Every structure is written in C-alpha cells, then in structure tokens.
What does this fold into?
Amino acid sequence: MNKFKKPVIITFFFCILILLIKNQFSPLLLAHSSYGMPALIRQGKIENLYIGSSMFRQGLDIKILENIMPDKNYILAYNGNQPALEYYQLDYLLKNNVKIDHLYIDMYVYSAWEAPELSDEKLLLEIGLKEKWDLWNLLHNESQADFEHFFRMFISSNNELLLTWPLNSPLINSQFYKGGALTTPSNAKADVLAHSSVPVIESNMNEVQEYYIHQIIQLAQNHNISVTFIETPKYAVIASNDSYLSAMKKYVQLADQEKVPYLISENTAHFLGNISSASDYYAFGHENTDYFMDSMHLSYNGRVAFTEIISSKLF
Amino acid sequence: MQTNIVLYLTFSIITVLFFYLIPSTYRRHYLFCVNFIFYFLCDYKFGLLIFLSILWSYCFGEKIGCSIFYRKLTLFLGMSLVLGTLLFFKYYHFFITADNSALGLLMPLGISYYTFKIISYLIDIYLGKRTPEGSFINYAIYVSFFPQIICGPIARSTEITDTLKNDLHFNRQLVQSGTLLILSGLFKKLVIADRLSVYVGSIFSNPTAYPSLALWMAAFFYTIQIYCDFAGYSEIALGIGNLFGFECKINFNLPYFSYNINDFWKRWHISLSSWLRDYIYIPLGGNRKGILRKKINILITFFISGLWHGTGINYICWGMWHGILSLFPFSKAPTKKQQFFHTIATFIFVMFGWVFFRASSIQDAITFIIRMFYGWTININSIVASVMPFTGDYSCLAHLITVCIFILILLICEWKEYLHPAKKYPSKYFIYAVAVLFFGAIGQSSFLYANF
It folds into this structure.
C-alpha cells in the first residue's frame, strides 16, 4: 500500500500547489492585456469607465469614443454582468487605487432581476485568491451557491485559457482595445430577429441586486465619481415589450430616487411619460435589422450608430 | 443517477465502504440489496421487470440444467420472455409510430445488457459450458450488478458467480488496480468525451450550417468521443467491480490501433463482439460451412449488432458497413511498415461508420457525408466557423487546443501500451488525476452507450 500512498500524496500536493498558483497569480498574466481589470489597475486612472454586460462590449465602439476623448475611456464588460458583481468590480478597482472620474453603468434589467450568479468566468481570471474568496462568500450568502459553484470558481474555471495562454493570449488581445471589442459582428436576418424570444422577467427587481445598485452609487459618491446609467438599445420585440418596459420603469425610479442621471431610449422614455431633468433620451432605430446581431446585441453598424448617439449626448 | 457521474461514483464508494465493514458472510446479501436499490433509484418504474426477468430465467436455468428431455424447448421458453421484453421495448416505437406515448414507453435501464447476460447464462447451461448457478442471490447479483447495468460490459456469468462462491475478502491488489482503472475511465469520459460532446452535438444537429472542415472535425471528434465515452465507462465499471473483488475481462483493447476491421472488432466492445461470436455467429455455422456461408454469417451477425444498437435504419447501415468491411480485410498480417497505413485506413473507415451511428437518420448521415466532400475549402472563414462551435466565444480556440492536447496524451499513453503491453506506466495516472481535477467536465452528463 505504501507504493500506492506515495504517488497519491505527491499528486495531492502537486494539485494544491497548482491551485494556489492559478488562483493567486493569474491576474499577473492580464496586466499587459487590452481588456480586464488588471490592465486598468496598471494604468492607474481613467476618466470614463463603462461597467456593464456584453451589451456594453458589443454596443460601445471604443475607437469612436477614443477619437472624441483620447486615452480617457475604458470598457469593463462581462457576460451577464449584474449590479452585485458590478459593485464588486468597482470596489476592487478603487481598492487598487484606480482613479475614476465618470462611471457609466449598463441598465441591463434581465440580470438585475435575477439572484446574483457568476455569469462570466473571465472575472475569476482577473482577481486573486482573497478576492475570489470574498466573491464566493457574496454568492454563497446571497444566492446559496453550492459546492459545484465553489469547484467551478476555485478549480475548474479558465483552465483551458491558462493551459493555452501563449497561443491564445495574443489572439484574444488582438480582439480588444481598452476593453472594447474590435470584432465586427454582422447583422442578423430579419426573420430570425422577428421570431426571437423575449426573456421572462419577474415582476420585482431582485432585492440583492437592488441593494447593490444603491451600494454602487454610494461607493461612487464616496470617491467623488459621477454616475450615469445607460440603457443599451434592444431590438423592437424586446424594446416594446411590456414586461421589459415595466422593469425599466423600476430601474429609472431607482435612479430618480438616488438622483442619478440616466440615458434611456426614446421608446422607454415614451412609456415612462416624463423623465427627470438631469436625464436624457436618445432616438434609435429599434426596428432596423441592420443594427442588431440578435435581439439584445448590436451589430457593427448598430454599435457605430449607438456610440455616435451617446457620445453626442454624454460629452 | 445514471446520468450524473459524481452521484454514480459517490454511490459506488459508499457501497464499497459498507461492503467491507460488514462480515464477509453477509456481503453477498448486501450486494444483492445494493444492486436493486441502485436500480430503483435510477429507474423505479422497471425495478419489478428486472426482478421478474431474473426470477424467470433463474427458474428456467435450473430446469435446463436438470432436465434431459425438452431442453431445447425449455431454453426457448426461458429466452422468449426476456428477449420478447427487449424486442417490445426496443422496437415498439419503430413499428408503431403513432401515439407512441400511450404506453409511456421508456427504455428500462440496461435492458439490452441484462437481457444478453441472461441469454448467455441460459445458453451456457444448455451447451454444458456451465452448471445452473443454484444460488438465486448469486445469479441475481450477476444479472443486476450495478456497475455494469447502465452500459455493460456484458460479463459472462462465471466471471461473477465464481467469485461469489468464494468469500468476498478485501483484495488490496484488486482495489489498487480498480482505483487506477476508475481514474483512467474518468480521464477518458470527463476530460475528453464530455469536452467533445457539445461540439459534436452542434455540428451533427445542423450539418448544413457548417463548412466541410467542421464536418470532418465533427466526424473525427465523434470517433474519439464515442471511444472515450464508452471505454471510459467500461473502465469505471470494471474498476468498481474490482473494488468489490470481481475481476472481469476488459471491454476495449486499444481499438483504434487495429490494422483491419476484423482486428477492430477483437478490440472494440469485446464483451458484445464475443457474445455475438459465441451466440450468433458460431451457432449459425461460423466458418465451418464454406466461404460463402461464412460471409453470410458475418453479415447476419453484424446486422444483428446494428439492430441491437438501435431501431433506425442508420444503425443497420452502420452494422452492414462493418459487415461488408469485415468481408474484405486489407491483409491478415501486415508488416510493420504497412501496419501504420492500415491502421490509419481502418480508423478512417470506422470514422465513416460512426457518421451513420451518430446521425439521427439515414438521410442525415448521407447528407453529412456528401457535405464532407462537397464544397471543400480551407480559408480563415471556414476555420473560424469550424472552431467557434466549441464555446461560441473567444475561448473556443483554447477549448480546441486543450482537447487536442489531451487526445495526444491519450494517444501517446495507448501507443506505449500497444508497443509494450506488459509494461506499466504509473506516471500516466498522475497526468490523468491532475487532468480530471482541473479539466474534467463535471456535471450532468450521460453515457452514450446507456441509450442502447
């Protein structure tokens, strides 16, 4: 049995060592990349920070933003990003002494209406062991994340990327610039868009996510950061959907309550009737199939159109 | 539980621990209960069916063993119920397509496997290869042995019952070899097969949407996936059997190193191919009745093999494809230089066979194969379109490279094993363990062969 025991012990300690290295030092790999928090931390300060979901990644054209305000924009986008995690990301950046002037938050109602979850494992690649532990506690306490989540967070996440890092890293870096996507997604077919399903949405915003929206605002105010909420355009089937508009109404009420300005679509503004004086709305072709790659995300043409619209409104 | 490998392993480990905690005289009874508990947990609707099949065949086994007259009739009656049940559940949907939900017909778990086990037991008694078991408990353990119930291997009765006749003591060597087998199986299943399943599924579900390169990749990866899935499960099942003190024959012996189709079938799903040889091919006359009859017997055997796997015409085509290839082996004993090319050619022939097996219908399989050759181009767009289905985002290339690395590791390990079968390579288990922990696709996943 001793012959069997020794390799088992060696394997066990080897795995522990790999786990520690992987979880603690993976952010170092991203310090010189073209996306993510470690690269922003290395930069030290930013004027306009956009934190949001894939809608920000697909919907904001970093080149256009940079043409207007060079070296002053950074997009931090994660799939399905949600207020609880956005708070966490902002807090992490501030703890690492990143100076931010303006913060733009994605009003993505579909994630804010769900319990917090780890929607994008890429986030785990960008933070150390202690931060992961804090994030695990947040998810465990707020949404009863179980052992499977724990295993995913600390053991199985991003291993493929790390194993193939020398090959993959240049390829991924070439697809981003200051966190913004450089890829040019084509538009979807009109019939596909017309038949796309509308996600089901609960009647009330998730309490935890609501709490973290307040926390984001509070944290930003404590660090003298001005906050603006931005609604990204959705295709007509969603943009004019009653449950979506009702959810947006709740989000806007929350922003009003906190006296935070917001920029919403004309569609939503019409539904709301009147909006606060500090806020604004934009007209966008929600029915223009040339602007959408799916019902949620903008195509390259849509991205250019939307970025030009919002830059004229914001700057 | 049959679809969740973590639950399946947890159940196995707990039952093994209790198995050695109780006195050895009660271990058979314990195992008898555990097998039925497992079956009821997985498929409570058909728990009674397997119990009745066991009881029925046990009685007929005893009858065949002790009678002198009407033995053939007794054998026929003994087999008829279990075979009839299998045929009913397996082919009902094929013949009655309208309102097939009326009976709510789901396949009873492992029916194809335990039916073949029962038939082999009855025929072995009839042919005098073994005596009736005598102990109902031992026989029931053989038929319902839980590690082998989901997708085999189809062990021969003596492999289990002979061990049960002795006291089931803790055998350190078997436990060690069982643990290593489980590790090897987990590597194949979780690290390679499950990693490939999403990709293969996406391409096969809509082959017209992808370029030819993607179809070639999907056919290649499915060839790897089905081997790793099934051989992986077999190793896990044999490993768990070892933990209980049973030593059954291996089910896969490096099949993709075969130099022709006949060699392939000596190495692929050995328990089924030897079953078909012993209970179909040889009783039909085997090679004893001339060349023409031998060829017909081979085709019949492969036809039945295809039928056993499924009711679609594509399964029969898959069986016949192998049958026809078996009639024309490239050579019986290639030289070392020839062997490499023969092995590659055999792999490609087997790969085309798997397209029939994986496609949802014969039309889909033909469309798939035509599109593999039609409009063949390699440019950046076709490469991107072929790699994207791995994850659908920027990490797709990482997934492709990762799975290729592990396929290469497996290839090197198996190639070494093929060249030096007697030599042990303990270092491979270190790689397997690390790979399973960090790269195992742990979650809900079914075993491909559990569907048959």
About this structure: The longest strand of chain A covers residues 45-52.
